[in-house]
Every structure is written in C-alpha cells, then in structure tokens.
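Anyone able to model this chain together with zinc ion?
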Amino acid sequence: MALKIRFWGVRGSIACPSPDHMKYGGNTSCIEVQAGDHCFVMDAGTGIRNFGNIILEKDIRNTHLLLTHTHWDHINGFPFFTPAYDPKRSVIIHAGHLKHQGGVKNILSTQMQNPTFPVPLEAMRAELKFIDFQAGEAFRIFDDVNIRTAPLNHPNGATGYRVEYSGKSVVYVTDTEHVPGQLDQNILGLIEGADVLIYDSTYTEEEFPEKIGWGHSTWNEGMRLCQAGSVKKLAIFHHEPDHTDDVMDKIEIEAKAAWDGAFVTREGMELVLD
Ligand SMILES: [Zn+2]
Ligand SMILES: [Zn+2]
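re: yes, here you go
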C-alpha cells in the first residue's frame, strides 16, 4: 500500500499567478496525502480550492485538515473549500499551537467575518470538528496513519508534521527559520530516517541574511537537516513569490548539483512512496 503526496500549492506568502510562474505554480501551501484508501490534506492555502473539487468528484465524505499555522498563505483557501459547505460531509481540522490564542475555530472564523468576507463560518454546513493539540504530541487520524508533530521557529508559532503509513514516512516542515550553524533539534527529532522532507526553502542563502526574523529558511539548510537525519529526499517548498520560473530552474540545478536527493516541488507534482 503506497503513500502518495500531491502538491496543490507550493508557494509561500501570497498567491502569484502570472506568465512567469506557470511551471512551478502560483497557489499557496496545500498538500494532499493518500495513505492507501485514506486521503487527507495539509494546509489550506489557495491550492485547497482545486483539491476540494477532487473531494467532490471522488465523493470522499470525511476530510482531515492538518494546519501548520494560520498565516494567510496557509488558510486563505479555506473559505473556498467547497466540501465544507455540504451537510453530507465532515471536515476535521487539527492545529498544534493555537490553544492559547483562542483556538483554531476562533481564528478560522475571524477570517470569515464581515467586512472582510461575506460568508461566515456558520454557513459551512458540513460537520466541522476543531482539534487544538500541543505541537510535540503524536496522534492517529486513521487506524493505520500515525502523525507525529514538533514546534517550529516561526512568528506566532507553527507545527511540523510527520506522517507514517505502512513503513513509509513524509515530513512537512514549513514555515520555520533556522539559526545558522545550529541544526534545529526539534526538526531533527521529527525527520530521522524519513523518506521525504518537504521543507521551507523560501530564501536562497544569499537572500537569507537580509530576512532574519521573518521566519523562513533555505534549501541548503533543508539539505543539511536531511543529511544529518538520514532522510532520503528533500522537497524544496514554500517558494518566494518573486522567484519566477527562471529563478526556480536555477535553484533546482544548484540544489541537484549539491545533492541528488533534492528536487523542487511544482503545483500538480505527485510523489509515490512504495
Ligand atoms: Zn507561509
Ligand atoms: Zn507563516
């Protein structure tokens, strides 16, 4: 039974549809995971709108949504997630660091309040369940899908996820800032021996010194983490909107030259681990 990952949005900060962003895509963070017959999603950036159409097409009744955090680029697609308006369905939303900030329900509801959005959370007629846990906890979302989590270094906090199914594992670590020369022990503990690390690679090493405190990292740090944690592949993710297709092509060439386990994620890309 395979673990499959499909990228519905790979961009950070803000959606950036343009002729210069056709190859890698302009939608913000959203990743579908298929674990055997189960299907769930991580983050609700603008990419989740298209994922929602798949849920309707396949008539999947229950969807788990794991949120890394609630910055706009990770929740802006939520009001456009059509299955959440259908009373025949249920959506279970998990978040790891918001208990003391009013809880995830409160924050998603605030996003949908007048006068910034005309349709309130209450208009979502699916059965919605909100689960606030503490980053660092482990839980199961299906009998055979283990989730482990860790806190990340990001303004207002963020949660990293490790998904384990049938002997395979994928780790999703965005948004996080590294301290140069010091591998993040929380992340190392989460990624050990994983098949793939999807990692916040917003900046190049040249850009990073100007962006200290902004809460993001580089593919080079992702590679160092993978090598220290015996992770097989690095998925370069959360692309800076100003990084056009040409820039991303160059990043892919540089990253592959540094380590052949690295690759750049694109919208629509599918990974199959079996
Ligand atoms: Zn982000
Ligand atoms: Zn963020």
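Residues 245-258 form the longest helix (14 residues).
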